[in-house]
Amino acid sequence: MRYQTFRQAGYFIGSGVVEAGCKALVGQRLKQSGMRRSVVGARQILTLRCALASGLFDALWDLCHRLVPR
Questions:
Q1: Is the pLDDT of residue 30 over 80?
Q2: Side-chain-side CA neighbours of residue 47 (13 Å)
Q3: DSSP letters for 40-58
Q4: Burial letters for 2-32: b for 16+ Cβ neighbours within 10 Å, e otherwise?
Q5: HSE, side-chain direction, 13 A CA sphere, residue 26
Q6: Do 37 and 45 form a contact (C-beta atoms < 8 A)?
Q7: Alpha helix (H) residue ranges in 1-70
Q8: Which residues lie below 8 Å from residue 25, measured CB to CB, with a gap of 6+?
Q9: pLDDT score for 58
Q10: Would the N or C end of the chain have less CB density within 10 A of its end CB?
């Protein structure tokens, strides 16, 4: 991994940031008391939450509507 390049670009490379992001995106939604999901359902929820967090939700939403026949 090119740590110097990534640090200069402002990317976080420590595991703490990754773990915190995972806790926020995954844990808050999928690990609450009494929640049960299939693998497919969990993947769909995580795709939407990641798209929202990364600012790509609108592009994903447009793509989904172009792919689904009406």
A1: no
A2: 11
A3: HHHHHHHHHHHHHHHT-HH
A4: eeeeeeeeeeeeeeeeeeeeeeebeeeeeee
A5: 9
A6: yes
A7: 3-8, 15-22, 28-30, 39-54, 57-67
A8: 46, 49, 50, 53
A9: 94
A10: C
Q: Which amino acid is at 7?
A: R
pLDDT score for 70: 66
What's the average model confidence in pLDDT over 39-64?
88
The CA-CA-CA angle for residues 41, 42, 47, to 5°, reads 100
Mean pLDDT is highest, among 14-18, 20-24, 33-37, 53-57, for 53-57
Q: How far is CA 69 from the centre of its chain?
A: 26
Q: Is 39's pLDDT higher than 90?
A: no
The amino acid sitting at 3 is Y
